[in-house]
Write a structure and sequence with these properties.
By secondary structure, the protein is an alpha/beta fold. The chain folds into 3 domains: 1-46; 56-158 and 299-314, Response regulator (Rossmann fold); 161-295 and 337-346, Response regulator (Rossmann fold), CATH 3.40.50.2300. The chain is 43% helix and 15% strand. Strands 2-1-3-4-5-11 form a 6-stranded parallel beta sheet, with helices on both faces. It has a 6-stranded mixed beta sheet with strand order 7-6-8-9-10-12, sandwiched between helices.
């Protein structure tokens, strides 16, 4: 999760910049022509990116809110835009139809918006229209599902699916070590297997387990829904009379997974979730779940913030580099009972 940097950092940088300005001013007392001009190479840029700037129009096209995490994506984007009086935010209807989303982007192009923040239904399918927007001089910020061409977006904001698996696997290794479990049985409840994001999560999980000489013993795949989570978890429990650790890729389908656990009265394992729902965090506080791994629903909010900076020709204040990076991958932190209170306000409702 991308969290705000301490304000002290900015204060120190501002003080340092003022010191540079003072030195330049002192140098300007010289009578030589060279000393009276050209301070651009020594003066550091100073400013507050949150202060209102030039009015910019940002179009947003996101997914249909048929899943808790997807609803949180849309809500976080709109909440972020409301923070800025210099942003005219135009929201297209959420959709899972690539053709409809293409027409939405065409409308934004015709309206000559300054920037578009886009979580594509299908990255490949939206690449052509996103490239068209870029060629029209519109800043495109790609969120979560990447386009198939580097020319389609100015910058891309991503969650870390492979890193999510690594975080879950690392937590599983810690549970095994802390409990001194010998010959542990590890299970995995994946999402839709055909999706690259599911494949990446599984690869990361396997890699982390390999680091502590473990492997997945039982693996099933659901469909990111409550009903599918309950069904496959029930089958898993019947097939495996003993389980020590279970990682479920998605906290929305985890509602069904937890129902299957309750129906079977199975509680002997450490249950690790994924995505960071409020349900999962409440279960952690209640002791019904060991941990969940964040897949940030703030990606679109970060996209809106970056689109505003780019449209106003600003950089990121906490970076030395002047320009906004072309690719930003957010962290996949593990939420446990030790830090759940910090993350609970950021949890999305399933």
């Amino acid at each position: 999760m991308s969290l705000p940097r301490p304000t002290l950092t900015r204060s120190v940088r501002t003080a340092a910049a003022l010191g540079v300005v003072a030195l330049v001013a002192a140098g300007c007392t010289s009578n030589t022509p060279e000393a009276s001009n050209d301070t651009s190479s020594t003066a550091a840029p100073v400013g507050d990116n949150a202060k209102p700037g030039e009015k910019v129009t940002i179009g947003f096209s996101g997914p249909a809110a048929d899943h808790g995490w997807l609803a949180a994506i849309n809500n976080s984007a709109q909440a972020e835009a409301k923070k800025y009086t210099d942003v005219d935010f135009r929201v297209a209807e959420g959709t899972n139809d690539a053709s409809l989303q293409i027409s939405q982007i065409e409308t934004f192009i015709n309206d000559k918006v300054d920037a578009i923040v886009l979580l594509p239904t299908d990255g490949a399918a939206l690449t052509e229209v996103a490239t068209k927007a870029t060629q029209a001089g519109i800043i495109v910020v790609n969120v979560d599902r990447e386009f198939s061409s580097p020319f389609a977006a100015r910058t891309t904001v991503l969650g870390d699916n492979y890193g999510m698996g690594v975080s879950a696997g690392t937590r599983a290794c810690k549970v095994i070590a802390d409990k001194k479990i010998t010959n542990p049985v590890i299970a995995e409840i994946a999402g839709i297997d055909a999706l690259p994001l599911t494949q990446d999560r599984s690869k990361g999980f396997a890699a982390a387990l390999k680091a502590c000489n473990q492997t997945v013993d039982n693996r099933v795949a659901a469909e990111f829904t409550v009903a599918s989570g309950e069904s496959v978890a029930a089958n898993l429990l019947q097939a495996a009379p003993k389980i020590d650790v279970i990682w479920n890729h998605d906290d929305d389908q985890g509602v069904g997974v937890m129902a299957a656990f309750d129906n079977a009265n199975r509680k002997e394992f450490a249950f690790i979730g994924g995505a960071g729902s409020a349900n999962a965090m409440r279960w952690i506080k209640e002791g019904k779940m060991d941990a969940t791994v964040i897949y940030p629903p703030t990606q679109a909010a970060d996209g809106v913030r970056l689109a505003r900076l780019l449209a106003q020709d600003k950089g990121m204040a906490d970076l030395v580099q002047v320009a906004v990076p072309r690719r930003i991958v957010l962290d996949a932190p593990v939420v446990t009972k030790e830090n759940v209170d910090k993350y609970l306000p950021l949890g999305f409702e399933s």
